[in-house]
Write a structure and sequence with these properties.
Layout (H helix, E strand, L loop, with lengths): L6 E6 L3 H13 L3 E7 L2 H10 L7 E5 L7 H11 L5 E5 L4 H9 L4 E4 L4 H14 L2 E2 L1 H4 L3 H4 L10 H10 L5 H7 L4 H15 L4 H10 L6
Parallel strand pairs: 1-2, 1-3, 3-4, 4-5, 5-6
Helix pairs in contact: 4-11, 9-10, 10-11
Length: 216
């Protein structure tokens, strides 16, 4: 008998119908299988504590759950299981939530109305390459996200600003922290958006993570 070489996936989502449908979809893909499903972060983390040697290639983690939500679950995983690869799932593309999930270690962020084709590309990419972010979520140009040939020189204060932008601080709070005016901070932001060819703060965070300006 041949050994099971399927990529093992765990789903953590409180919507049973969605969770079951997602399991059926994944199991229809060649070389993938769902090995467990959990209804919230608390029962999932309890399982990990009770079964520390569980082999899993990818976690699909719902952002909005009762008892223990995706952000809180992600924070625990960052501290205790940093090697686990996670794709966040959500019904909305709230910038603040996306940044929280990414900076706490999520390797991808997918909306729940994503097509099966993109979904399969995403789970394959995260398992094999370590990350996957759609242009809708990242705000980054696909060409730029995949082009490592251009070396961008950043000023020291720009790097400081990027690090602050990867936190939960508002731009006004960042201005206060850096002892600069909000107008100057707006200038930093727009200059970096133009220099890095990105469109949103999420794109800035992804650039920082990818280039190890911040560690997740």
């Amino acid at each position: 008998m041949k050994p099971n070489t399927n990529k093992k996936i765990i789903i953590v989502d409180d919507h049973q119908l969605f969770s079951q449908s997602l399991e059926l979809l994944i199991n229809s893909f060649k070389d993938f299988e769902v090995i467990n499903r959990f209804e919230n972060g608390k029962v999932f983390l309890s399982f990990l504590n009770d079964h520390p040697d569980t082999e899993v290639d990818l976690i699909l983690l719902d952002v909005n759950m009762p008892v223990l939500d995706g952000v809180s679950t992600m924070k625990w995983l960052k501290e205790n299981k940093p090697d686990l690869k996670v794709i966040a799932l959500s019904v909305n593309d709230d910038e603040e939530v996306i940044i929280k999930m990414i900076t706490n270690g999520a390797k991808g962020y997918l909306l729940k109305d994503t097509s099966p084709e993109i979904f399969k590309d995403a789970i394959t990419s995260v398992i094999e390459k370590g990350f996957y972010f759609t242009e809708l979520v990242s705000g980054m140009l696909v060409k730029k996200a995949n082009d490592d040939s251009k070396k961008i020189n950043l000023k020291e204060k720009e790097i400081v600003f990027i690090k602050h932008a990867c936190t939960e601080k508002t731009y006004k709070e960042i201005a206060s922290e850096m002892c600069l005016s909000p107008k100057t901070i707006d200038g930093y932001r727009e200059c970096l958006f133009d220099k890095l060819e990105i469109k949103t703060r999420i794109g800035l965070v992804l650039y920082a993570v990818k280039n190890k300006i911040v560690l997740v």
